[in-house]
Amino acid sequence: MAERPANENLSEGSQFNRADMENLYEDSMDSMLSLMGRTVTLWLEPGQTEATNNPDQFNPWVNNKDPRLGPVDEGSSGRTVEPIFVNYTAHVVHGPSPIADGRPFELEIGDVQLTTVIGSKQDMEDAIEVEVDGLKFDRKKVDERQMGFASPKYLITIWTRKAV
Prior knowledge:
The protein has 164 residues and is an alpha+beta fold. It has helices at 18-36, 121-126; strands spanning 38-50, 58-59, 64-65, 79-94, 111-117, 129-132, 135-139, 145-147, 154-161.
């Protein structure tokens, strides 16, 4: 048996090094998010702020100023409950989509997969619901998946359509 030498020469190395490949990957992902991404709204637990009733607000029914027209406060606590939301740009994939399509998770009818920057991780974990294309979704009981070339820079989460 005789071994024939392989027809390859890797001694010169590649024109790309690891940092170049990482930059190429991140630039591609960032471009995909900025060009094809959609705005998704994460709704977080309502926050409380000090009530700021403004007695100078105008009441059209009595043609006068009315202190009752300030923000709705929570009883006599002097605090106002305000919804908190944050918007992120995300790559959105609506289900159904089997894992065989190369996706990291199987998406069922009514599911949505969001790919966002890793900086959204805490907000994604704290979110009560997410609004995508005017539809509201709850967090699905699937762990998120972090992705990146050398270190995690993006996050994939799965959400399921809220029952109406």
